[in-house]
Amino acid sequence: MASDPTQQEKDQLMKHSIATRWALAGALLLGLPAAAAAQVIGPGFIPNDNTAYGTTSGEFLLLGGGARGTALGASYAALAGDVSALYYNPAGIAQMNRPQAQVGSYNYVAGTKYTWGGIAFPIAGGVRSFGLQIGTFGFRDQPVYTVEQPDGTGSLYNVSETFAAMTYAQNFSDRFAAGLTAKFVSDQLGDASGSAFAVDFGTNFHAMLNNKPIKLAFTVTNLGTGMAYSGAALNTNAVRTQPTPDDPIPTAGQPAELRTKSFPLPTAFRVALGYDLLSQPNNRLSLITEFDQPNNNAAGFGVGAEWAMPKLGSSPFGVALRGSYTYAAANTIKAAMPTAVSLDESLQGLAGGGGLSYASGDFNLGFDYAFKFMGILGFTHFFSFTVGW
After folding, report:
1. pLDDT band at residue 351 using 50, 70 and 90 as cut-offs
2. Which residue has the higher pLDDT, 303 or 34?
């Protein structure tokens, strides 16, 4: 018959458990980023590098889906388990136990604005979930400049970029979920327009390690058709070939339409890992990290953390603080000589924020704020509001 462990053995087990947690935390903060750093380009362009920098359309698809995710960066794909998972990881909405809706506004650079909204519903007793989302970006009444009229033609143009999507997610076991999103993308650039279709796919594996939740996510986003443009802006007159160059004949131009190349959408493959270093009923500290490979940049990575206290003083009010750093290779390419914006370049990708929540029974409200540093373009700000019932 086995005897009960001694106090010394209990202490050794506790020390081993704590050491394991800190080792995992170190792996979260250093492991995946180190792997990514081995993939990204070094200072300056590599002569044989064939990375397709700046060759994708629909870049507004990368602007996010809520202030919480903006503050935590792309690493949030590992934690996403609320309505904003519609954007970050479709599998995440399968973890929702009640309907939620969210709307957010992103004050982006140069006076532009991005708006995102989503709603998701658990169905079939929570085994499956269904959701809808929409995002729009643009600006209005900007003057038109041409080479012939550098001071402006007197005309104005507008830009309106929109995507609409629906998501289905399912729990295949108590530890694994997967989700699929189908989206339609519309791009109206002045008098030219284009459209495309894309899908997002995500998985979420969630388990316990040392009695603390651990989550692993895999996502592929914006995988779809290319976007070609058409419209009045591409109308032109083709010059007719003269039959006899020495004796030109006056001719009128032939009406024609320029054809554009089909540009791919900004597709990204991502692996994210999250672990709760602290996991108590009213005190949680989550560490997250991710590695990503986009089709328009070299490989990158991100790290982040979220501290949350859902019940302040046993009240229905809660608070959360968040921060992250996301490395994108093209944002840190160094010039031949140091410049005054070198510090701005190195800090680009820094983000943070926080949130307030209220929960009473099945009803909950949330308000979240995030900032993101865009290097020499300055800070951007995201506000979002969530309601659940």
Report:
1. very high
2. 303
Closest by Cα among 353, 350, 338 to 377: 350
Per DSSP, 78 falls in state G
**DSSP code of residue 103:** E
The neighbour count for residue 138, using CB atoms within 10 Å, is 17
Q: Kindly give the pairing relationship between strand 100-107 and strand 379-388.
A: antiparallel
| Cross-strand pairs, 29 | none
Coil, strand, or helix at residue 73? helix
**Beta bridge mates, 320:** 308, 355
Banded pLDDT at 40 (limits 50, 70, 90): very low
Q: Is the distance from CB of 285 to CB of 277 less than 8 angstroms?
A: yes
Q: How far apart are CA 163 and CA 133, in angstroms?
A: 8
Q: Quick one: pLDDT at residue 10?
A: 52
- How many degrees, rounded to 5, is the angle at CA 210 between CA 207 and CA 215? 30
| Structure-token match 């070609």, residue found | 228
Report the distance separating Cα 17 and Cα 89, nearest Å: 30
| Alpha-carbon gap, residue 266 to 54, rounded angstroms | 9
pTM (two decimals): 0.82
CA distance 50 to 130: 39
Alpha-carbon distance of 316 to 327, in angstroms, equals 37
